[in-house]
């Protein structure tokens, strides 16, 4: 006689499943924790425009890869709201400005690549951002501070490249529809199994 006891919802889309099976002298218990990690990989898509500020509202996001596009503008100032983020790759774009201080609030971040952009100013100090290899920041000529060898000089304003205004496919609606499409498709495939 098979008996399925519980499916409980925990934060960050993790589920606890407890299943017991008994028949004659044979019995077993199966306990499993299933975690659904949300990732967005839109690398190498030739997107242009700015990273939408609404990306900050995807609180459960574990991995974000927007590398190898033509994104402009700044890193959203409240990117630190993505407290579950473990992987962030914004490399090989045209991103300008400084690294937002809020990025230091993401204590789970284990992979960061901001290389090959036009970032400027000091890398926020006293945080895990210094624990990443210097290659995570390379080819940002106006960026300074550890782990880079280039020291910051106080009173010297950074030179930011001039950026053009560009309307693009990479808009708020695109992010929202992509996320919803993934979620609906994922749950739909589970329902057909």
Automatic annotation (TrEMBL):
Signal peptide: none annotated. Keywords: Glycoprotein, Leucine-rich repeat, Membrane, Receptor, Repeat, Signal, Transmembrane, Transmembrane helix. It is a single-pass type I membrane protein. The keyword Repeat applies. The keyword Signal applies. It comes from the Eukaryota. It is found in: Membrane. SUPFAM superfamilies: L domain-like (SSF52058). The chain crosses the membrane at residues 173-190. GO terms for cellular component: membrane. Belongs to the RLP family. PANTHER family: LRR RECEPTOR-LIKE KINASE, LRR RECEPTOR-LIKE SERINE_THREONINE-PROTEIN KINASE FLS2. This is Receptor-like protein EIX2. It comes from Abrus precatorius. The gene is LOC113866611.
């Amino acid at each position: 006689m098979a008996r399925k006891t519980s499916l409980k919802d925990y934060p960050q889309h993790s589920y606890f499943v407890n299943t017991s099976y008994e028949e004659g002298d044979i019995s077993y218990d199966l306990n499993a924790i299933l975690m659904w990690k949300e990732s967005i990989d839109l690398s190498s898509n030739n997107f242009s425009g700015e990273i939408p500020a609404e990306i900050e509202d995807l609180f459960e996001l574990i991995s974000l890869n927007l590398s190898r596009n033509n994104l402009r503008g700044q890193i959203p100032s409240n990117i630190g709201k993505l407290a579950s983020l473990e992987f962030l790759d914004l490399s090989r774009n045209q991103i300008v400005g400084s690294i937002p201080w809020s990025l230091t609030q993401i204590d789970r971040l284990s992979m960061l690549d901001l290389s090959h952009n036009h970032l400027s100013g000091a890398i926020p100090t006293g945080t895990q951002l210094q624990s990443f290899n210097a290659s995570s920041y390379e080819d940002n000529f106006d960026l300074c501070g550890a782990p880079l060898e280039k020291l910051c000089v106080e009173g010297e304003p950074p030179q930011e490249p001039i950026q053009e205004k560009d309307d693009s496919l990479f808009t708020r609606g695109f992010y929202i529809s992509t996320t919803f499409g993934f979620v609906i498709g994922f749950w739909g495939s589970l329902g057909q199994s």
